[in-house]
Write a structure and sequence with these properties.
5-stranded antiparallel sheet; 10 helices
């Protein structure tokens, strides 16, 4: 394969689209610019097909200059990935924004792996095949980012996800969902994403959040002296247990570390807590504990907001405000985790598939 390639594809909105890739993709971009192609979305180039004669001349010049420069030119049989992404996004539940991603240099494709949250064919393809471009579909309301890529050497597309930002790097995460394969038609593709992929993705997010909260609490608990371990305590509904109002008799360094770990709980527990329905579970008695946990989270969020806004807070005051919160969560962690595991995300609504055209009446009835 040449060190510079140009892939030609077609978009119904902008005409002929050219994508420069390879280790020396810059030389391909220079040829595109010199032959009448204009730079557009996400680093793609295009020439309008409104003037067919002019478009043909630009393509002829491109092929001639590319051959002279040792640049490989390939015409794709697939439509522009940006069009495919937009057509699918319009049929998914909620509001989705699309963006084309160009991985011109092969190294850029490798940069995907730490953030590609997938245990299926998409991750395998990114590791083993050349995928020079893809498209993202982003739902800002749910912080979901889907990745749409052409199946290497085969029809259809692979659909997976990038990890939520709060998850960090996720390469090899066992909680990751499995990507799915969809066909080239947007209606069935959107239906498969809505009915198969998104529910699996939401369940994977749910389980990953539980794991992160459990690990953070486990780290804090493991550093506690057993003699200082919080005892089970109860308090008024929605209030912190009286026992945990006193600062733990532990060193400042431990309390600092405990707060840093607990920020993971602050980030991920609210969504999980909101899904818990103790009255509908096998442990309705957990309701009081969950009320205490919710009150503790509000107190923790207030501390974090104060720190973000630069409110003066001494180390002693910080510990006095945060340790009762942490102690409450350590006390009731078992109740929270079993309720969170029993909860489940709500399924997305059905996709808004276009209505079929009306059936024509037989001629003898007209």
């Amino acid at each position: 394969m040449a060190d510079a390639q140009i892939t030609l594809t077609y978009s119904r909105n902008i005409g002929v689209v050219a994508i420069a890739t390879g280790k020396h993709y810059e030389s391909a971009e220079k040829v595109l610019g010199a032959t009448g192609f204009r730079r557009g979305e996400a680093g793609t180039y295009h020439v309008s097909d409104a003037d067919e004669a002019a478009a043909k001349k630009a393509l002829a010049r491109l092929v001639q200059r590319a051959q002279a420069s040792g640049i490989e030119v390939t015409a794709s049989s697939r439509r522009f990935i940006g069009d495919a992404a937009r057509d699918i996004a319009r049929l998914l539940p909620g509001q989705w924004n699309t963006q084309v991603e160009i991985y011109a240099h092969p190294v850029w494709q490798e940069d995907l792996l730490p953030y590609l949250w997938d245990n299926g064919d998409l991750a395998h393809a990114v590791r083993t095949a050349r995928i020079p471009y893809a498209a993202t579909l982003t739902n800002r309301a749910t912080a979901t980012i889907l990745l749409l890529a052409e199946r290497p050497g085969r029809l259809g597309y692979l659909v997976g996800a990038l990890a939520p930002a709060a998850f960090g790097e996720v390469d090899g995460d066992p909680h990751a969902p499995r990507s799915i394969t969809v066909g080239p038609f947007p209606g069935p593709a959107a239906q498969a994403i809505t009915e198969r992929y998104l529910p699996a993705y939401e369940q994977a997010v749910h389980e990953r959040r539980i794991t992160m909260v459990a690990e953070a609490l486990g780290i804090i608990q493991s550093e506690l002296d057993p003699r200082r371990e919080p005892r089970t305590a109860t308090g008024a509904e929605g209030a912190l247990p009286e026992q945990s109002r006193q600062c733990a008799p532990a060193g400042d360094a431990f309390l600092d570390r405990a707060w840093r770990e607990f920020l993971t709980v602050v980030d991920h527990a609210p969504v999980l807590l909101d899904r818990c329905r103790p009255a509908a579970s096998a442990w309705p008695q957990d309701a009081e504990a969950l009320d205490q946990l919710a009150a503790a989270l509000l107190a923790a969020e207030q501390v974090r907001d104060d720190l973000t806004r630069g409110v003066p807070l001494s180390r002693a005051d910080h510990h006095q405000r945060t340790w009762p919160v942490i102690a409450t969560w350590l006390t009731h962690s078992d109740s929270f985790l079993r309720q969170a595991r029993a909860a489940a995300p709500s399924p997305p609504p059905a996709p808004a598939l276009p209505a079929p055209p009306p059936r024509a009446l037989p001629a003898h009835r007209l």
